[in-house]
Write a structure and sequence with these properties.
Helices cover 36% and strands 23% of the residues. By secondary structure, the chain is an alpha/beta fold. The chain has 2 domains: 149 residues, NAD(P)-binding Rossmann-like Domain (Rossmann fold, 3-Layer(aba) Sandwich), CATH 3.40.50; 107 residues, 2-Layer Sandwich (Dihydrodipicolinate Reductase, domain 2), CATH 3.30.360. The structure holds NADP nicotinamide-adenine-dinucleotide phosphate (NAP).
């Protein structure tokens, strides 16, 4: 059975890459591509947006008008748009893959509620490598325990609008969880001035925004005398897009629940 996929934010950096990834994926077909209502790209051919040539799917400015044509929506946009699209899909009984980052705690609760009605797969990072890193980080934190200082450094392109990255926060969550700490209590976001000596319980975050960096993350476990660093570097958005498309195929026909990429990969 062919899974019919829709993309919101179709003209965005991830949207265009997702169109290409769906085009390469066996068993999935692009059935709808949606942009903001006022976008000058409404009516354009989605394949041409992604540099593939015409594929016969016109960009729509209204998800409601095309939601019946899809089985699964993949949404990489902004939190407000994602929540509106999710509500529409929940009412229409359609599964949703969420790649957008930067949700507030209350918005995350809204997503959980919607996942009671339709299957939802949300991940701050859909690449296989990063999801493997989550496992490695859990192991490192458990072995190194409270004897190390933990710092997370992330770098992204100049257009990214949220910080630290959703992936960096997920990495902090994995490490905090392994050590029995509450990330909300121990996270330190950047430092300046007379900071005093470092408290070992804290987990520090540092953010770089520059040029066209696709996404670099390093978690440092530093003790006296040695340190372990776990690093992931994305060199192409295709790693995220392939993962999200794989999640869409996996999600189709599942029971309503909130899943993540670890579930998709069976980790
Ligand atoms: P982008 O290039 O800015 O694309 C965002 C898209 O969303 C654009 O097409 C934009 O349309 C559309 N959009 C913005 N506001 C909207 C609204 N109010 N209603 C409907 N559509 C709206 O950004 P990107 O680099 O593709 O990233 C998108 C999101 O994915 C970010 O949150 C990013 O952090 C996340 N991301 C996640 C992963 C992952 O693996 N989970 C990987 C990469 C990126 P306009 O251009 O018309 O504004």
């Amino acid at each position: 059975m062919t899974v019919r996929v829709g993309i919101t934010g179709a003209a965005g950096r991830m949207g265009r890459t997702l169109i290409e990834a769906i085009n390469q994926a066996p068993g999935l077909v692009l059935a709808a591509a949606v942009e903001q209502p006022g976008s000058s790209l409404v009516g354009a051919d989605a394949g041409e947006l992604a540099g593939l040539g015409k594929i016969g799917v016109a960009v729509s400015g209204d998800l409601a008008a095309v939601v019946d044509d899809i089985d699964v929506l993949i949404d990489f946009t902004v939190p407000a748009a994602t929540l509106a699209n999710l509500a529409l899909c929940a009412a229409a009984g359609k599964a949703v893959v969420i790649g957008t980052t930067g949700f507030s705690a209350s918005e995350d609760e809204d997503i959980k509620r919607a996942a009671g009605r339709v299957p939802v797969c949300k991940a701050s990072n859909f690449s296989t490598g990063v999801n493997l890193c989550f496992k490695l980080l859990d192991m490192a934190a458990r072995v190194l325990g409270d004897d190390v200082d933990i710092e997370i450094v992330e770098a992204h392109h100049r257009h990214k609008i949220d910080a630290p990255s959703g992936t960096a926060l997920s990495m902090g969550g994995v490490v905090a969880n392994a050590l029995g700490r509450d990330l909300a209590e121990v996270a330190v976001y950047g430092r300046e001035g007379q900071t005093g000596a470092r408290n070992r319980d804290t987990i520090g975050f540092a953010t770089v925004r520059a040029g066209d960096i696709v996404g670099d993350h390093t978690v440092i476990f530093a003790a006296d005398g040695e340190r372990v660093e776990i690093t992931h570097k994305a060199s192409s958005r295709m790693s995220f897009a392939r993962g999200a498309v794989r999640a869409a195929g996996w999600l189709n026909g599942r029971e309503p629940a909130l899943y993540d990429m670890q579930d998709v990969l069976g980790l």
